[in-house]
Design goal:
By secondary structure, this protein is an alpha+beta fold. It has 17 helices and 16 strands. Helix 1 runs antiparallel to helix 6 and helix 6 packs parallel to helix 11. It starts with 13 loop residues before the first helix and ends in an 11-residue tail after the last helix. It binds one RNA strand through helix 3, strand 6, strand 10, strand 11 and helix 13.
Length: 431
RNA sequence: GUGGUUGUAGCUCAGUGGUAGAGCACUGGAUUGUGGUUCCAGUGGUCGCGGGUUCAAGCCCCGUCAGCCACCCCA
């Protein structure tokens, strides 16, 4: 093998693609029912967009972006979907067109991290964004939607984590307080956290290092420093979640690594350990300042989440295999291939899926293949059939076959499919 | 980016420095034109790649690439 897929990126072949299609279809259905419309934004944006919105000191921007220079433009292949969607929202002046916009997207994202279980350099996210509604009901509804989504995919063992880091002023104040708290004990922290002390003290809180856990014990809690408004927002959100019956845990250590978040943060984690250290299936929160930050004349609150599709697929039952063709056309000699082609075309025009075996192999080999593909009907065209202007139609499930004139073969095939197909009609809802 | 671990047939894997293997899959036959089972046979290998040690390397050593796992971070 000379050329391989680049590290951390992989092919999704047809047998696996059916699972992706089912997942995406379910996502679209549920999310559209909740009022979201699809947005498709460019996969490449100016580097500045991500640097400004995600934050210069975050790992995503600092070391994980695929960035390149094209003539005078500094460009980046998107590492996440929120910044680009927000940019599109502002650029297209949606705030002037409608008070509230609900958007969703599905597509690939790119981060140059070291690959691991549930983590790839090209990965796929499906996410939603709401612009223009700052009320906590909106947050509660979105979190509920997230739980509904993963349940629809067949995920059972998960827990929703919720936190608030307050609006911009609160967040900065909390950050300073944490720095003040941790600085005197900096020697007792892990090496990573000593670095975090300077770049992002919030992150020390969700460190896995026992030294940091110990040191965090007496640290000030976000919930204690929230402004009255922020606290009321969180309290209302919690009340709504209770009314909706969404189980969740209030997790004061939930921080998240993107700088744009304000107030509500949430994450949905799998609890089975199937994903190793990458236990977050989906994460999101509020980013009430981004729209102004992007130059919008009027401030617009915003809220969003993104779900990792590879991760969801990794913890989701496989579902049904890719369906085989309804008809499998098996010409037994070269002279039969032309009529078989024509018959195949006629069948497809009547809506019957069919596949032609042009390999020139034995009938046995062709039937074996038809059977392996779970075709419903095999259409046999050999010497005898050709002489009489007929075909043999074989029902592979019932082990019955009949002869029919070529001219009526399509009708006979339709009738046979209709009579034998009832059992195979049900399709599973799970991805 | 750091550490660990694994790379042998399409897949899953055995292989103790001395002839490259099994099961599954695929193809053919037993069955001059019928799927499954069974039986028989066959195709398929730069042993990830590159160096080194040795009379001799899939096996030992070094490097490199890739997968996986953990850390960092995140979906």
């Amino acid at each position: 093998m000379v050329v391989r897929a680049v590290r951390g990126m992989k092919d999704i072949l047809p047998d696996e693609a059916v699972r992706w299609q089912r997942l995406e279809r379910t996502f679209r259905t549920l999310v559209e029912r909740a009022g979201y419309g699809e947005v498709r934004t460019p996969h490449i944006e100016s580097t500045e967009l991500f640097v400004r919105e995600i934050g210069e000191d975050t790992d995503v921007v600092g070391k994980e972006m695929y960035s390149f220079q094209r003539h005078d433009d500094a460009l980046t292949v998107r590492p996440e979907g929120t910044a680009g969607a927000a940019r599109a929202y502002v650029q297209n002046n949606l705030a002037a067109l409608e008070p509230v916009s609900r958007w969703y997207y599905i597509g690939p994202m790119f981060r140059a991290e070291r690959p691991a279980k549930g983590r790839y350099r090209q990965f796929h996210q499906a996410g939603c964004e709401v612009y223009g509604d700052e009320g906590p009901a909106c947050d509660a509804e979105m979190i509920d939607l997230c739980a509904e989504l993963v349940q629809a995919f067949g995920v059972r063992d998960f827990v929703v984590h919720v936190n608030s880091i307050g609006s911009a002023g609160t967040r900065a104040r909390y950050r300073d307080e944490l720095a003040k708290y941790f600085t005197p004990m900096s020697a007792a922290l892990s090496e990573d956290s000593q670095r975090r002390l300077a770049t992002n003290p919030l992150r020390i809180l969700d460190s896995k290092d026992p030294r940091d856990r110990e040191a965090s014990q007496g640290a000030p809690r976000v919930t204690d420093v929230l402004s009255d408004d922020d606290a009321a927002h969180l309290a209302a959100l919690r009340r709504y979640l209770d009314e909706l019956g969404v189980p969740y845990v209030l997790d004061p250590r939930l921080v998240r690594g993107l700088d744009y978040y304000t107030r509500t943060l949430f994450e949905l984690k799998i609890t089975t350990g199937e994903l190793g250290a990458q236990d977050a299936l989906l994460g999101g929160g509020r980013y009430d300042e981004m729209i102004s930050h992007l130059g919008s004349k009027r401030p617009v609150p915003a809220l969003g989440f993104a779900m990792g599709l590879e991760r969801v697929l990794a913890v989701t039952p496989a579902g049904e295999a890719r369906p085989g063709p309804e008809c499998y056309l098996a010409p037994m000699l070269e002279r039969a291939t032309g009529p078989a082609l024509v018959l195949g075309k006629a069948l497809r025009q009547r809506g019957i899926s069919c596949e032609l075996d042009g390999r020139g192999q034995s009938l046995k080999a062709m039937l074996r293949r038809a059977s392996a593909m779970k075709a419903r009907l095999a259409v046999l065209l050999g010497e005898e059939e050709l002489e009489r202007g007929e075909v043999t139609l074989k029902d592979l499930e019932r082990h019955e076959q009949t002869r029919a004139p070529l001219a009526t073969a399509v009708e006979v095939a339709l009738a046979m499919l209709a009579s034998s197909g009832a059992a195979a009609a049900g399709s599973a809802g799970s991805a």
